[in-house]
Amino acid sequence: MKILEYLQSYDGKPLRFMEVCGTHTAEIHRNGIPALLPPSIELVSGPGCPVCVTVSAYIDRLIELGRDPENRIVTFGDMLRVPGSSMSLSEARAKGCSVRMVYSPMDALKLAKADPDHRYIFAAVGFETTTPVYALLVQEALEQGVTNLRLLTSLKVMPPAIDWICAHNAEGPAPAREERFGEDQESAGIRLSGESFGIHGFLAPGHVSVITGSRIFEPLARKYGLPFVVAGFEGKEILAAIAALVKLQGQGRVLNMYPSAVTEEGNREAQERVTRFFEPCDAAWRGLGVIAGSGRKLRKEYEAFDAGSVALMEDAGGNPACRCAQVLMGRIRPRECPLFGKVCTPQTPQGACMVSTEGSCFSCWQSEGL
To answer: What pTM was computed for the model?
Structure first.
C-alpha cells in the first residue's frame, strides 16, 4: 500500500496530529492505526466525543429534575453512566429517579404526547451533527401542540473548541492578547505559526463537516498556520488523511478528502433549521472550562421548551485523580492517567472518556486492553 509505505518511511521532524471526532477515535483504534505509524508521527484525541465533554452539573441537573414526580427524564443509553458530581443517571435511577432510555429524540415526543400528565425532559447532548435533529424535535412539538416536552441542552460547536485547544497547547509564548474565535490575526496585530504549537494538524470531523461544510475550518487554518483534513471513516481513508497532513505540514490549508458526503458550504437546510431555533452562547466543556461562543441555546421565543440549560456551567465532583481533561487536550495518552485500567474501566468509569464508545479511554481499552 503506497500510502502506508509513505507514512512508514517518514523520517522528518516529530509530528502530532489530533482527531476531533469520536467516530474517528474509535476507528483509529479499531484499525490499529497507531501501531502502523512510525514513532515520529503521533495521533492524539481531542474533545470530539459529546458525551465526554458534558459537565457534571448537567448530569446533576438531570438527576434533580428526575426526582420530581411530575418529570420523566429521557436520554440515550451512553448518557446513563456519565459521572455527575456524586452519581450517574444509572445510579440515580436505581434510587428511584425517573430515567428512560430511548434510541431517537422523536421517541421523547411520542412519550410526551401519550402521557400529558407528566413533563418529558430530553437530554439533548451533541455537536453540530445532532443539533438539527433537536431543532426538528421542537418544530414537531410545536406543530403537534405538545406542550409537556422540554430539552435540557448541552449543545456544542467544534471550531471554538479547536481554537481553545490550539491556544492552550502552545509550546512557545501565548498570543499577546486573548482572541475570540474568527477574529483575523493580522488585523489583531498577531502573527501565529503552527511551529509554535504542540499540534501540527487536525483530522477534521467528518460527520460535523457534513452539516457545517469544510469551509468552517478555514479561519483556524489561517490563524494557526495548520492543515485541516476532512476525513472519511474507513481505515484507508484515515491513513490517506494522515498522509495528507504530513505533506501539508506548516501550511494553513483545509483539504476535503470526504467529498462523497462533505461539501464546502455544508447542509444549508440543516443550518437554517438550527439558526431558526437556536442561538450562540458560551458553553462549559468538561475539563476545559467555559469557552466563549462554543454552545447553542434555544432562542428566547422557544425558551418554554428549555429545562434550565444555560446555568449549567459547573464541573465539580468526581474522582480528583481523573485526568480526562488532559486526555481531551491531547496532553497525555489515556494510559498515562493513573486510574486507567485500575479503578477506571468500562465497568467502573471514573471519567466520561471511559463511558462512551467514542471516548478515547474506552477506545484505548477496547483496542489495547491492559
So the answer is: 0.85
